[in-house]
Each structure stands twice: as C-alpha cells, then as structure tokens.
Write a structure and sequence with these properties.
The protein has one domain: RbsD-like domain (RbsD-like fold), CATH 3.40.1650. A six-stranded mixed β-sheet has the order 2-5-1-6-3-4. Strand 3, helix 4 and strand 4 form a beta-alpha-beta unit. It is of the alpha/beta class and 150 residues long.
C-alpha cells in the first residue's frame, strides 16, 4: 500500500501509466472484451488486470492520469451495436467519474464497436476490469502535467 495512491492501482498498472506519454491511449475494458488477444498487439504487449467495476477502475486511474486537453477524443466509450446514442448505466457511472476527476463536465465520445477494437490494438495498454455489464469499455488519451508555476 502507498499513501495517497488508490489501492486498486497495482504495481504493473502504475508502471504502465507512468511509462505512457502524451497522446498514448489507455483501454479500460469489461470482462467480455477480448482483452488478452488485443493486449498482445499493444505497445506494452501484455494484459493488465484490476478486478473491480469499470467506474471504480476509472476513478482510480484518473486519480493519477491526466486526460489530453488538445483533442476531442480523450475520453471515449464503445457504442452499443445498433443503438449508438444509448448510454447504459455502466457508461453513465464512468461519465460521472470522468467529470469528478476533471472537476467539470468532460465529453465522452462514442466509437463504433469494431472501430473501438482497432483503436484498442494501437493503444499503449489494456486494463481488463471485473466489470460484467456489457459495454463497459473505454479509451482514454493521456495528457500532460504542466510544470509548477514560477
């Protein structure tokens, strides 16, 4: 355990988040997502796991992970097949965690299912959660932390 670090963030996850650079994508996926096969194609090349709900994992990650302010797709969700505008409860819960972490409403774009798979394969890494509800899959683009004011 570390003081000030959410205990869900294990050593492997912290190492990956720290190694990522500006513009790198992080995928947070539910238990049904093909996480292992997709993760093997990412920059990290191996699957990371955090056995908690999607919202809990997003809250933990965003406690240390800056979102990219230079793009409109820094936060994204997988669309429901045939219902791209429907937002299920799992995605609403994650939206609340994003807004809380950023201290303001933060838009989360939607990505068609197969386009989400393609974005995931190009990501830095994939964290598979214990989320069992469908469409608990999200992409986050890493931003920057500015220098301290002089």
């Amino acid at each position: 355990m570390l003081k000030g670090i959410n205990p869900l963030l294990n050593a492997d996850v912290l190492q990956a988040l720290r190694a990522m650079g500006h513009g790198d994508d992080l995928i947070i996926a539910d238990t049904n997502f093909p996480s292992d096969s997709v993760a093997r194609q990412t920059v990290l090349g191996k699957l990371l796991r955090v056995d908690a709900t999607a919202a809990e994992v997003v809250k933990a990650v965003l406690s240390v992970f800056p979102l990219d302010t230079f793009v409109n797709d820094a936060a994204a969700r997988m669309e429901i097949v045939g219902k791209p505008n429907e937002i299920p409860p799992v995605q609403k819960e994650v939206q609340k965690e994003i807004d809380a972490a950023e201290g303001k409403p933060w838009p989360m774009i939607s990505i068609e299912r197969y386009a989400f798979y393609e974005r995931s394969k190009k990501a830095y890494c994939v964290i598979q959660t214990g989320e069992r509800r469908f469409y608990g899959c999200f992409a986050f683009k890493k931003g920057v932390i500015p220098p301290d004011a002089a």
